[in-house]
């Protein structure tokens, strides 16, 4: 078994991040020393002209990779199985929300979505490798690589506007399934699994595909937020690496499992807040910020006279996390932290097993 890789430092600061623009680049800096620079695409500006009862936001997703083609007996002789396609890279998301004294109020099941503001960049998952069966040899196709998530940036400006989210329903007087005030995510796509390779003589599974990397997440929040439900965080920001694909299985007189692939890294996360935050539900932090590395894929198993399991590798690294806050934060529920920050590396994969005489 391969263990996890490292996580980077978590830092907290009192002032909110100072933000500045440069040509072709946005620079975000906190007094904790976190600096991130990334290409600026077209900035999307949303200006509220009335009170809103449905959530707003922007999600960009990369396309999923196509699965590889299987190969039966006749196809295997001529062509063999093909590899899975790579997942697409997700475009960046950069959103400016101007409240102008208006508010966003969502009430759970009556609103779509329940979260008031959602910004996400989601890399596409890699395709699974094709399976191969042949008389003399069978070689599974490799899984496709997951696409990277890109930069996610959100700035809110307020002259009195607020965000308020409520629960979907209550059970025994407990509020459930409410949305977050703000949810920001950049996620790498998962790598595709390797295809299986089976043969009477020699069979080998395909290797898993690499997980994509999570992108940088930067929030600059300047308005009041209130949430009421279980897990309803006022501000939730995360960057996550995609998981690696598992190796395919192999069978034959001589056989081997495919290798489990490495996972993607989590990107850096920076949150600045000047607004008043209030949560009433349990497990509902005022600010919840995290960077998480992806999990490595497991090696494939094999069966035969001479059988070798596929190897695995280490998990992905996590990025740095910085929070700057000058607003008041009040939480009422069980295990509801005012500020929660974490940077956690991903777990390594398990090696595959070889079930054979040798």
Task: Provide an overview of this structure.
It is built from one helix and 32 strands. It has one helix at 73-78, and strands spanning 10-13, 18-22, 25-29, 35-38, 44-47, 56-61, 93-98, 104-107, 117-122, 132-134, 137-139, 152-157, 162-166, 169-171, 174-176, 182-187, 197-199, 202-204, 217-221, 224-227, 235-240, 250-251, 254-256, 269-273, 277-279, 287-292, 302-304, 306-308, 321-325, 329-331, 339-344, 354-356. 2% of the residues lie in helices and 38% in strands.
Short description:
The chain contains 1 helix and 32 strands.
Computed structural class: mainly beta
Strand content: 35-45%
Question: For the residues shown, what is the average pLDDT?
Answer: 83
- Characterize the largest beta sheet: strand count, sense, and whether it forms a barrel: 7 strands, parallel
Estimate the global geometry from the Cα principal axes. elongated
The percent of residues in helical segments reads under 10%
Total number of beta strands:
32
| Strand line-up of the largest beta sheet | 1-29-24-19-12-7-5
Rg: 23 Å
The count of helical stretches stands at: 1
Instruction: Report the end-to-end length measured between terminal Cα atoms.
Output: 21 Å
- Unreliable spans: 1-41, 168-175
């Amino acid at each position: 078994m391969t263990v996890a890789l490292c996580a980077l430092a978590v830092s907290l600061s009192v002032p909110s991040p100072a933000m500045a623009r440069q040509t072709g680049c946005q620079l975000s800096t906190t007094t904790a020393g976190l600096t991130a620079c990334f290409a600026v695409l077209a900035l999307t500006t949303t200006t509220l002209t009335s009170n809103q009862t449905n959530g707003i936001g922007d999600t960009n997703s990369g396309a999923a990779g196509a699965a590889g083609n299987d190969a039966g007996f006749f196809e295997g002789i001529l062509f063999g199985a093909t590899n899975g396609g790579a997942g697409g890279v997700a475009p960046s998301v950069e959103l400016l929300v101007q409240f102008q004294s208006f508010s966003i109020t969502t009430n759970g099941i009556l609103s779509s979505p329940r979260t008031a503001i959602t910004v996400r960049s989601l890399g596409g998952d890699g395709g699974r490798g094709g399976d191969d069966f042949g008389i003399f040899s069978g070689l599974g196709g490799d899984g496709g690589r997951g696409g990277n998530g890109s930069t996610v940036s959100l700035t809110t400006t307020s002259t009195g506007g607020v965000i308020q989210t409520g629960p979907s329903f209550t059970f025994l007087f407990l509020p459930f399934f409410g949305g977050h005030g703000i949810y920001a995510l950049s996620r790498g796509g998962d790598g595709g699994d390797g295809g299986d390779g089976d043969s009477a003589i020699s069979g080998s599974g395909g290797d898993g595909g690499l997980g994509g990397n999570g992108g940088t997440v930067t929030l600059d929040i300047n308005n009041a937020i209130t949430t009421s439900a279980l897990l309803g965080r006022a501000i939730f920001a995360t960057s996550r690496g995609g998981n690696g694909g598992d190796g395919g299985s192999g069978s034959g007189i001589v056989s081997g499992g495919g290798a489990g692939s490495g996972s993607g890294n989590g990107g850096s996360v920076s949150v600045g807040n000047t607004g008043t935050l209030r949560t009433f539900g349990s497990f509902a932090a005022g600010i919840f910020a995290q960077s998480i590395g992806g999990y490595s894929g497991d090696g494939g198993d094999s069966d035969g006279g001479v059988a070798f399991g596929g190897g695995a590798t280490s998990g992905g690294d996590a990025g740095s996390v910085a929070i700057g806050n000058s607003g008041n934060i009040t939480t009422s529920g069980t295990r509801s932290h005012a500020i929660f920050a974490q940077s956690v590396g991903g777990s390594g994969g398990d090696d595959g097993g070889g079930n054979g005489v040798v």
